[in-house]
UniProtKB/TrEMBL annotation:
<keyword id="KW-0812">Transmembrane</keyword>
<feature type="transmembrane region" description="Helical">
    <location>
        <begin position="331"/>
        <end position="351"/>
    </location>
</feature>
<keyword id="KW-0275">Fatty acid biosynthesis</keyword>
<dbReference type="InterPro" id="IPR007482">
    <property type="entry name" value="Tyr_Pase-like_PTPLA"/>
</dbReference>
<protein>
    <recommendedName>
        <fullName>Very-long-chain (3R)-3-hydroxyacyl-CoA dehydratase</fullName>
        <ecNumber>4.2.1.134</ecNumber>
    </recommendedName>
</protein>
<dbReference type="GO" id="GO:0030497">
    <property type="term" value="P:fatty acid elongation"/>
</dbReference>
<keyword id="KW-0456">Lyase</keyword>
<keyword id="KW-0256">Endoplasmic reticulum</keyword>
<feature type="transmembrane region" description="Helical">
    <location>
        <begin position="247"/>
        <end position="266"/>
    </location>
</feature>
<feature type="transmembrane region" description="Helical">
    <location>
        <begin position="216"/>
        <end position="235"/>
    </location>
</feature>
<dbReference type="InterPro" id="IPR008978">
    <property type="entry name" value="HSP20-like_chaperone"/>
</dbReference>
<dbReference type="GO" id="GO:0030148">
    <property type="term" value="P:sphingolipid biosynthetic process"/>
</dbReference>
<keyword id="KW-0276">Fatty acid metabolism</keyword>
<dbReference type="GO" id="GO:0005789">
    <property type="term" value="C:endoplasmic reticulum membrane"/>
</dbReference>
<keyword id="KW-0444">Lipid biosynthesis</keyword>
<keyword id="KW-0175">Coiled coil</keyword>
<dbReference type="GO" id="GO:0102158">
    <property type="term" value="F:very-long-chain (3R)-3-hydroxyacyl-CoA dehydratase activity"/>
</dbReference>
Length: 366
């Protein structure tokens, strides 16, 4: 005796009837039993488990007319039409909210509640009735793409906020305990966690590409890439720079900016309006961004003699690629680009963003 499996069943509804599509081909020996709120079907055919006996049972949300059940066996499937005993829209097909995995929604046949059953014009529920389509997606998958992206962004921003809070807390505790003597060991204390959360920030460059955020891809790359260059190529790659006081101040500036930025993003995702946080997000950068650029410039400038001495990252001739690259010269060029077009581009972008956010709010209050 062969096993009995459950086929995939796709359903849709109008105000007066339910349609079912059973995903079985070349069906034989079909048997249908129906009562007011129960439909049982058994058949032999080819489905997801090959040639086998298949069956399913539906405890329906509301009663149907057992005498008005029509089904048609075709080569690719079995189509059912069930007449509702009382006209009306069912919130779901079955009586219990936990939908079995084999029960799917037939989006091709679905009609929205505000559509006329006799309407001749063919509509696409995805575009003509987006609210209904979203409800169906939630029933089918338990979430929508937008909800998944929102949950991911909340978790990401919260994780980054906790990371930068940790860095600030460690720096603050060490300074309160040891005073200025703790400054020179800042990188040894928080360098590794800072590198980890900085690497995670490269996800922010990808978010606009995936449509998760509407940020400028160029600005995101300049912010994350510029900071990563200073952290990994200037500080982590040169041990003598790691003990300089400027590292403490640079980490302090970077972390202060982020512990304001990430909570602001979280409140935006949760549709929570905090006027002071919005003002702080678009104001705190005015002193901190130029100061941060200045500290980064000091790190690069002080590193040039070190890299002249070690020749690290420098490629000299002869080599198999017949290519030369002098890293200290690159740093001098990068320093010019950082303070002229780099600072100008970043400050201009932030000024426009601040005017848009705070200027709009002010005019609205007036």
């Amino acid at each position: 005796m062969s096993n009995t499996f459950t086929p995939f069943v796709y359903w849709a509804q109008t105000e007066s009837q339910i349609t079912l599509k059973v995903d079985l081909t070349d069906v034989k020996d079909i048997n249908v039993d129906a009562e007011n709120n129960l439909l049982e079907v058994t058949a032999y055919g080819q489905g997801a488990r090959g040639w086998n006996n298949y069956s399913f049972s539906l405890n329906l949300h509301s009663p149907i007319d057992p005498n008005e059940i029509n089904y048609k066996v075709i080569d690719r499937q079995v189509d059912f039409i069930l007449k509702k005993k009382f006209n009306g829209w069912w919130p779901r097909l079955i009586s219990y909210p936990q939908k079995p995995s084999w029960l799917k929604i037939d989006f091709d046949k679905w009609k929205s509640e505000d559509m006329d059953d006799n309407e001749d014009e063919k509509r696409d529920i995805r575009y003509d009735y987006p609210d209904t389509f979203e409800k169906l997606l939630k029933e089918e998958f338990g979430y929508t793409k937008e909800e998944y992206a929102k949950a991911y962004l909340i978790i990401y921003n919260l994780f980054q906020f906790v990371g930068f809070i940790y860095v600030l807390a460690v720096m603050g505790i060490r300074y309160s305990r040891d005073g200025p003597d703790s400054i020179k060991d800042t990188y040894a204390a928080v360098g590794n966690p800072f590198k980890f959360i900085q690497l995670l920030q490269f996800l922010e460059v990808m978010h606009p590409l995936f449509g998760y955020t509407k940020n400028s891809l160029l600005v995101s790359f300049l912010q994350v890439g510029g900071r990563a260059f200073v952290l990994f190529c200037m500080i982590d790659a040169e041990p003598r720079m790691q003990t300089k006081n400027i590292v403490f101040y640079l980490f302090l500036l970077w972390s202060t900016i982020e512990v304001v930025r990430y909570p602001y993003y979280i409140t935006q995702l949760l549709n929570i309006k905090i006027s002071f946080l919005t003002w702080l997000r678009y104001t705190i950068w005015i002193p901190l961004y130029p100061t941060g650029f200045f500290c980064e410039g000091i790190v690069i400038l002080r590193n040039i003699p070190y890299f002249e001495e070690t020749q690290r990252f420098t490629v000299s001739l002869p080599n198999i690629y017949n290519f030369t690259f002098h890293f200290p010269s690159f740093l001098r060029i990068y320093l010019l680009l950082l303070f002229i077009p780099g600072l100008y581009t970043m400050m201009s972008y932030m000024i426009r963003s601040r005017s848009k956010k705070l200027g709009y709010s002010s005019s609205k209050r007036e």
